[in-house]
Design a protein that fits this description.
The structure holds 2 protein chains of 2 kinds.
Chain A: H1 5-16, H2 29-40, H3 42-45, H4 61-65, H5 83-88, H6 109-120, H7 146-156, H8 168-180, H9 186-191, H10 198-210, H11 212-225, H12 243-254, H13 259-268, H14 277-282, H15 299-319, H16 338-345, E1 364-367, H17 372-415, E2 420-421, E3 426-429, E4 435-437, E5 443-445, E6 453-460, E7 467-474, E8 494-495, E9 497-504, E10 510-513, E11 515-520, E12 531-532, E13 545-547, E14 557-567, E15 573-581, E16 592-598, H18 612-618, H19 629-632, H20 635-647, H21 650-673, E17 676-679, E18 690-693, E19 701-705, H22 724-731, H23 739-752, H24 773-785, H25 790-798, H26 801-804, H27 811-816, E20 829-830, H28 833-844, H29 864-869, H30 920-928, H31 930-946, H32 951-963, H33 969-989, H34 991-998, H35 1011-1025, E21 1032-1033
Parallel strand pairs in A: 12-13
Antiparallel strand pairs in A: 1-17, 2-16, 3-6, 4-5, 5-16, 6-15, 7-14, 7-16, 8-13, 9-10, 9-15, 11-14, 18-19, 20-21
Helix pairs in contact in A: 2-6, 7-24, 8-10, 11-12, 13-22, 17-18, 17-20, 17-21, 18-20, 23-24, 23-25, 28-31, 31-32, 31-35, 32-35, 33-35, 34-35
Chain B: H1 5-18, H2 28-35, E1 54-61, H3 74-79, E2 110-113, E3 118-121, H4 125-129, E4 134-141, H5 147-156, H6 166-174, E5 184-189, E6 213-214, H7 234-255, H8 258-281, H9 288-294, H10 320-333, E7 338-344, H11 360-381, E8 388-393, E9 397-398, E10 419-420, E11 424-429, E12 436-438, E13 453-454, H12 455-465, E14 475-477, E15 480-482
Parallel strand pairs in B: 1-7, 1-8, 4-12, 4-13, 5-6, 5-7
Antiparallel strand pairs in B: 2-3, 4-11, 8-11, 9-10, 14-15
Helix pairs in contact in B: 1-2, 1-8, 7-8, 10-11
Classes of the chains: A alpha+beta, B alpha/beta.
Chain lengths: 1034, 499
């Protein structure tokens, strides 16, 4: 184990930047000594008996001072007799500690001096601070706020005081983000007293704590720790429906459920007397781990993984202990043995689970969510809306139909040719078959030995304006085997795939053109029955395809393929028509075939029947008189023609697409309103035996162990903590020295960006000591004595002057305290990425602040899921109001977290350390993500309505919405006005670009007269949403 | 971005304090100023003289059969078709083999090549032509026999999820040489990303800024959100960024937080990346003779991209991997530190069509052999070979026995081998690696004969070549000094393969 250079560096730096001179003052064991010996010695001389060398442990005073045959490692009061000092400062490399082969550096001079001074002072020992129960420190009665008093204590020696209070709008904003995860309403900021009294702040805090968004904000913290996700993870990554648990968390915070109850229900709600469905639901907490359904994997191995995950999560989230270390061996630093660890796993080892994944991860709770109906209503409303829009479009299309029909009549009269034969520009094959062009556009291949091949027919300069369909004819021929279709033994052919590839001449880019539909005159059955219908040629699987075997073999057969969108081939483009024949039946390749194309859409390319225009052409001229044409054609032909017309009607098609999406959204909302299977805890009848697992390997059983809690944390007999329920109670026992501190620290971290303990996941010996130990203890005791009242804890923190400080920093203070460990200023940190998205929705007015229900799908770039899963999962962004829900409700796929969250917890294992990056990838997301752009467009619309003419007023509107303040004169004149003017000029000249920019998300483009103004204002909104100030906890 | 000198130093000092925690990341700029201050970014003095400047790691996901490519085993041919002796089966776990399988001799012919007398099969004619440039290691072994955990162990040093990948470690330790490009780029071919997914190039507990950036080559944005929205020209974007910069400067004047300056520089970097990434990703700019050298086809859309199951692609001419090899050269040429290629489709069990050793493997070899040969030749002619370390291999090997769970007897197109963790082959080249061979296996290739090389040894050796002491290079997390090579000292730099 190498030493923790960086921690040491930090210790030294802080010693150097102004902490009291350690060596001269009284040495504190926990603060000054333990880090040195823990970092440098414990790996070989610590708690882990297997790793211990020279039979020496340095983690206990008795062992360090014992007589080891004429000498002691440490002789209290006598540095000169203490062998420790000799060994750490020796110039003999064989004697020097830590030894060079440990890859640790020798101790620095400063550390040696500190050790010397400590021994001189009698080498006082101390128990590690976090394993001692917190005591409430005394705070003078006249202190205005305990937090401020305790923070000021630390500032006195630096002759500093708390910074002044932040500007009122900043503080409103800070409170609003911290307590609800959303920026404040503009009205709130405007109407707030200019010089607020204490009562005004109190009222605001009360109001925010009562908001339903408080629970959502706190839930986001809890979900990261609980590794909540909507899918299993790993290769199969199946969807699960545990979201009712997510709503339970939100509800619990909103109802201010005491944290001890909150904990006990999550550990063992199922074991409570007369457990309610909600109490059982709570135990989903311990089922949020990943599930591994990989092929060939032993389910028992997975099950053991889940059990370990529960213990590790408990360790990190509630106890601040790195229990994962003890999976394989005794902890090297903390007094926790491997046996202790496995005793803890015994509480979770008898869940009635099998280790299976997907829909087989019992035990389940059938649960109906009370939040689901709202989504059904909203989806039904959307179906109605899109239906009436579709009807309106249909009406409009009706009006446009007759003029279109007349054009078709003219065409039909000129002589309509349904199919145009392809005369290839080039022909090629992949493996080596030879193709030649015969008369009538028939292409013939020669017999060859290759079992499979692709025929590539290149089409250029077609006679048609556009191509909407492709026809393939396959001909029998006397030269083929038995006069059938190929030279193979059977004479049959199998077409496995058809592809269209578009290529610009002289350019290497190739684009695939999608086919939507295929139909054939007959579909046969292959010897391998996977070969059947022509539809099988549309996927990429060569194990399926089209054959006409078992059907008449002496007539030509025909297949027609419809393009998803008509293709307009420009003069410098070519289209490769690739006919893949890669079946498992050797040499079953077409011997004679012909390709044709058409420009007709709809029914024309969805059946082999005569095309509507063909029928039209056959009508006699009398019926085609322009004034009576519509009434003269019969109903079925009119229907066909009309549907063909609609295929080409962009507005109708878009309305249809949205209507289809709305209907499928309604379907899934209805499904979510029924019983949901939520993974929960529940014990099996026969408890499993639990063993120590050697080196953490799932089936390497060591000693058998029974249930037991960690004696180093809070000693309790096995009888006292016999069940999972009692384990939950042990976690939140007021005698447990860790839980209240660990949770308080995480809550503090939410509002200050960093905890009082800067290693929130590690309160053990290798973790950092608290920056304000007394404050942490005061808060922990206050939290417990208030009855684990979370809202009270939050209120206590955010009503302190410490919380209200201005976050600006002088160069001098930055030098003294770059990481704000003294809390002599407000902390400034970037908002979590989910909050940035929610803020953009709120500021723009797009936000749909409905609570609860099944997950929604915010915008993501196309192809993200498909790329990763070969099209097994397709991401369809939600439409209508469902698109604008808070990020908390976004679907979370474990293997592909939402892309717009450029940094966030991974939701794979428990995480309590915030991930906060400052990278170009995050800049790109905020600049270019659809949500960001649609919010900017919506803001632009609102700003123009609020101030159609007066630009400075418009800027004020935007600034108030995004930053909760008015622009300064410099900002308005020097930046915003200039930027607006440049953009407006540009978009005045380029209305097409203005239209492209403003047509975003679900919004249609504004009308022509205002489009440049909307676009220019939208650019301003986009830049404001990207400002450091806008995305930062100021 | 111009900063006054004292300010920039302060910025660096501030960053440095953040190094102890995973909560913060920052760009190349801050990193470089930090490295200029002594190169102690992570776990102390871990920098050692480097043999290589960059790494191209070619991972064949699914794991190719060493028996058909590198291991000429006459004894195995002799036992071909006989039942496997029980001693090889007792107490062993296999992913799919059941009961007593039959021994399966190598399916292709072997020959010795070059001055080093390298034994290679007929499936790798290209590699044979440059066999004197590579070092073949036939004594690799691993602890994992399922794809995801084995890939994770190989790439992150831990079979569980949540640990930083080797590319992230290297990027974190050394940074990128080009501040307009990410330092760690991932390219995938074969129609699918590896089983273990994005975790293979994740940052684990290291700052996320060092994670691998997957560049997509299927026609969309190479990097997510890279393109400006339609209706926003590059000039318009420039003006927007100018305004953002100006307003952020006001903010910095008011507040004094150095993070604001970093933010400004990251937005600038984003703007430069919008230009530099598409540029470097466009292999269409390469002359024809270079494209032909690799067998690359610019703009090709892999049919496997949308395939329901790409294992059944019987095509030999998919150029996606060749394109990625050419891209890899362009990236390292432009200062990218670590380029990770994944090629899917090497899991040749023989249990369903299109995943056999006898028919599919030759096709996969055809897809990579010319490309890899071209890559090495191209690096050589540009003088980049010596400073680029190339690593090739799968996550484990394949059994000397035939897999028998579907087809009990040999059947053309269905001859396959199961996962085999006890012995497999990898090769390395360039970057200070001594050409030749290292290690061997027993007569039938089941166990290591001599000079075993573990995953940890491989990781240690790779770090060593790029100029990082693998033992000293660590990051404090969860109470431990986490290292790529794990907590114990078992990982060794294999000196025998270093020139």
């Amino acid at each position: 184990m190498t030493m923790k250079f960086c921690l040491l560096t930090m210790v030294l730096v802080f010693a150097a930047i102004g902490d009291k001179d350690v060596a001269a003052d009284e040495v504190d064991f926990n603060r000054d000594i333990r880090p040195i010996i823990s970092d440098n010695c414990f790996a070989c001389h610590g708690f882990d008996k297997d790793a211990r060398k020279g039979d020496l442990r340095l983690d206990q005073r008795a062992a360090v001072t014992e007589d080891r045959g004429g000498y002691s490692v440490i002789v209290p009061g006598k540095p000169e007799e203490s062998v420790l000092l000799e060994r750490v400062s020796s110039s003999d490399p064989d004697l020097l500690m830590p030894p060079s082969d440990s890859h640790k550096k020798p101790l620095g001079q400063k550390s040696i001096e500190t050790l010397t001074e400590w021994i001189r002072q009698g080498a006082p020992w101390g128990e590690h601070w976090s394993f001692v129960r917190p005591q409430r420190p005394t705070v003078p009665k006249d202190a205005s706020h305990a937090i401020d008093h305790l923070v000021r204590q630390g500032l006195i020696e630096h002759r500093r005081d708390l910074a002044s209070q932040a500007a009122t709008h900043t503080l409103i904003r800070r409170l609003s983000f911290d307590l609800t995860g959303l920026p404040p309403d503009v009205e709130l900021v405007v109407n707030f007293p200019q010089t607020p009294a204490e009562q005004d702040w109190d009222d605001l805090v009360t109001q925010l704590l009562a908001s339903p968004h408080f629970g959502e904000r706190m839930a986001m913290w809890w979900l990261d720790g609980a590794r909540y996700s909507d899918t299993d993870g790993f290769q199969s990554d199946s969807t699960r429906t545990n979201w009712p648990w997510r709503d339970w968390v939100v509800d619990s915070f909103n109802a201010n459920k005491p944290f001890d109850e909150f904990t006990i229900e999550q550990f063992a709600g199922d074991l409570l007397p007369d457990a309610s469905p909600e109490q059982i639901l709570a135990t989903c907490f311990h089922r949020n781990h990943m599930n591994n359904g990989e092929g060939g994997r032993n389910p028992e191995e997975s099950r053991v993984d889940y059990v370990l995950d529960r213990v590790n999560t408990t360790g990190t989230l509630f106890l601040g202990l790195t229990l994962g270390c003890t999976q394989c061996h005794d902890h090297k630093f903390d007094p926790i043995s491997q046996r202790d660890y496995y005793s803890l796993t015994a509480y979770f080892n008898s869940i009635d689970e099998t280790g299976a994944a997907g829909g087989r991860a019992k035990p389940y709770l059938k649960y109906k969510s009370s939040y689901a109906q709202r989504a059904v209503d909203q989806a039904a409303e959307l179906v109605k809306q899109t239906e009436s829009h579709l009807a309106a479009m249909q009406k409009q299309a009706d009006k446009e139909f007759v003029p279109w029909l007349l054009k078709q009549v003219v065409r039909a009269k000129r002589g309509f040719r349904p199919w145009t034969v392809v005369i290839p520009e080039r022909m090629a094959t992949t493996e080596g078959y030879k193709l030649r062009l015969e008369s009538n556009g028939i292409i013939a291949s020669s017999p060859a030995a290759f079992p499979q091949d692709d025929f590539v027919i290149t089409l250029a300069k077609p006679e048609l304006d556009r191509i909407s369909g492709l026809r393939l004819e396959v001909f029998p021929h006397s030269s083929h085997t038995d006069g059938k279709y190929s030279f193979s033994e059977t004479g049959e052919f199998i077409l496995t795939n058809v592809k269209l590839l578009l290529r610009k001449r002289g350019n290497s880019q190739i684009q695939e053109v999608a086919l939507a539909f295929a139909v054939a005159d007959v579909n046969g059955v292959g010897v391998d029955s996977s070969y059947k219908t022509v539809r099988e040629t549309l996927d990429d699987d060569p194990r399926k395809g089209w054959t006409t075997r078992t059907k008449p073999s002496d007539v030509p057969h025909t297949a027609v393929f419809a393009l998803e969108e008509p293709l307009v081939l420009s003069h410098d483009e070519e289209l490769d028509i690739v006919l893949m024949q890669r079946s498992l039946a050797p040499r079953e390749l077409m011997g004679q075939f012909r390709l044709s194309v058409t420009d007709q859409r709809g029914a024309a390319v969805r059946s082999l029947k005569p095309m509507p225009l063909e029928l039209l052409a056959k009508l006699n001229d009398a019926n085609l008189k322009s004034d009576a044409v519509e009434s003269n054609i019969d109903g079925s032909l009119r229907k066909q023609l009309f549907s063909q017309f609609l295929e080409g009607h962009a507005a109708w098609k878009e309305a249809k697409r949205r209507n289809d999406l709305a209907k499928s959204q309604l379907n899934s909302a209805k499904k979510s309103a029924g019983d949901q299977s939520v993974m929960v805890l529940g014990d099996r009848k026969e408890p499993r035996n639990t063993y120590v697992l050697e080196r953490g390997v799932w089936n390497k059983h060591g000693d058998e162990v029974s249930r037991g809690v960690l004696p180093a944390v809070l000693k309790r007999s096995a009888e006292d903590v016999a069940t999972r329920l009692e384990l939950g109670r042990w976690i939140v026992s007021k005698e447990n020295p860790l839980t209240a501190r660990v949770i308080t620290n995480q809550v503090w971290q939410l509002f200050f960006g960093a905890g009082l303990v800067r290693t929130p996941a590690d309160f053990g010996l290798q973790g950092e000591s608290p920056t304000h130990p007394e404050l942490l203890d005061w808060l922990a005791v206050e939290f417990m004595e208030s009855g684990w009242d979370v809202k009270h804890l939050v209120r206590t923190i955010v009503t302190s002057q410490t919380y209200r400080q201005d976050s600006s920093v002088s160069a001098e203070l930055l030098e003294l305290d770059p990481m704000n460990r003294l809390l002599a200023r407000g902390t400034r940190f970037r908002l979590p990425s989910w909050m940035i998205r929610d803020a953009a929705l709120k500021a723009s007015g797009l936000l749909n602040d409905a609570a609860g229900g099944s997950p929604v799908f915010p915008y993501q770039p196309p192809g993200v899921w498909q790329d990763q899963f070969m099209g097994r999962f397709v991401y369809r962004p939600s439409i209508g109001q469902a698109q604008y829900r808070r990020t908390l409700y976004a679907f979370w796929r474990r293997t592909s977290a939402p892309t717009f969250l450029f940094d966030s917890a991974m939701r794979r294992t428990c995480e309590v350390v915030p991930r906060r990056t400052n990278t170009p990838l995050h800049a790109l997301t905020l600049l270019n993500d659809t949500t960001s752009l649609e919010a900017a467009r919506t803001l632009s619309d609102a700003a123009i309505v609020a101030s159609p003419k007066d630009l400075p007023k418009r800027f004020e509107f935007l600034m108030m919405r995004v930053l909760s303040r008015m622009p300064t004169a410099d900002e308005a004149a020097r930046v915003l006005l200039r930027q607006y003017a440049v953009a407006k000029d540009y978009y005045d000249e380029h209305p097409d670009e203005a239209e492209a920019l403003t047509t975003v998300g679900q919004l249609a483009s504004p009308n022509e007269e205002v489009v440049a103004d909307v676009a220019a204002t939208m650019l301003l909104a986009n830049l404001l949403l990207n400002l450091d100030e806008g995305i930062t906890h100021e | 971005m111009e900063l006054s000198i004292p300010l920039r130093q302060k910025q660096a000092v501030t960053r440095r304090h953040f190094f102890g925690q995973a909560g913060l990341g920052f760009g190349a700029l801050a990193l470089q100023s930090l490295l200029a201050r002594g190169g102690k970014a992570a776990g102390g003095d871990y920098r050692i003289p480097a043999k290589a400047k960059s790494i191209i790691y070619l991972h064949m996901a699914g794991s190719p059969s060493q028996m058909e490519l590198f291991e000429d085993k006459p004894a195995l041919t002799k036992f071909h078709g006989q039942e496997c002796p029980q001693e090889y089966l007792e107490g062993k776990r296999f992913a799919f083999i059941k009961g007593t399988p039959k021994m399966l001799g190598p399916q292709f012919k072997y020959q010795k090549h070059g001055e080093t007398g390298q034994t290679l099969s007929e499936l790798l004619p290209g590699l044979a032509s440059i066999s004197d440039d590579v070092c073949v290691i036939r004594s690799m072994h691993t602890e994992q026999f399922n794809h995801s955990p084995a890939q994770l162990l190989l790439q992150t040093g831990n079979p569980r999820l949540g640990y930083p990948s080797i590319g992230t470690w290297v990027n974190y330790g050394l940074g990128s040489e080009n501040e307009n490009l990410p330092g760690f780029v991932v390219l995938a071919s074969g129609g699918k990303t590896p089983s273990a997914g994005k975790s293979l190039w994740g940052s684990g507990f290291l700052p996320t800024v060092y994670q691998g950036v997957q560049c997509r080559t299927d026609g969309g944005d190479p990097i997510l959100y890279l393109s400006n929205p339609s209706g926003m020209s590059r000039e318009a974007r420039r003006k927007t960024l100018d305004a953002i910069r100006d307003l952020n400067r006001f903010e910095h004047l008011n507040i004094g937080d150095p993070e604001t300056l970093t933010r400004i520089s990251q937005y600038e970097l984003a703007y430069r990346m919008q230009m530099s990434v598409p540029e470097v990703m466009d292999i269409g700019k390469e002359p024809k003779h270079i494209l032909d050298l690799y067998g690359a086809q610019p703009g090709h859309v892999s049919e496997a991209e949308s395939a329901a199951d790409p294992r059944v692609l019987y095509k030999g001419n998919d150029p996606t991997f060749a394109n990625n090899c050419l891209l890899a050269r362009r990236l390292v040429e432009n200062g990218v530190r670590f380029v990770q290629l994944y090629d899917w489709g090497w899991d040749h069990h023989g249990s369903s069509p299109g995943e056999s050793v006898d028919e599919t493997l030759p096709i996969k070899c055809q897809q990579i052999d010319q490309a890899i040969t071209g890559l090495i030749k191209d690096l050589k002619q540009r003088g980049l070979f010596d400073e680029t370390l190339i690593v090739w291999g799968g996550e484990f090997g394949r059994t000397p026995m035939m897999q028998n769970n579907v087809h009990k007897e040999l059947k053309k197109g269905f001859i396959g081998r199961d996962h085999h963790p006890h012995a497999f082959t990898m090769w390395m080249a360039g970057g200070g690696i001594k050409p030749g061979s290292y290690g061997s296996t027993d007569d039938i290739g089941y166990y290591i004969g001599e000079n075993p090389m573990s995953i940890r040894d491989l990781q240690a050796t790779i770090l060593h070549q790029i100029g990082i002491d693998p033992h000293r290079f660590s990051f404090a997390y969860e109470g431990l000094n986490q290292r790529l090579i794990g907590p114990t000292e078992e990982g060794r730099v294999i000196k025998e393969i270093i020139s």
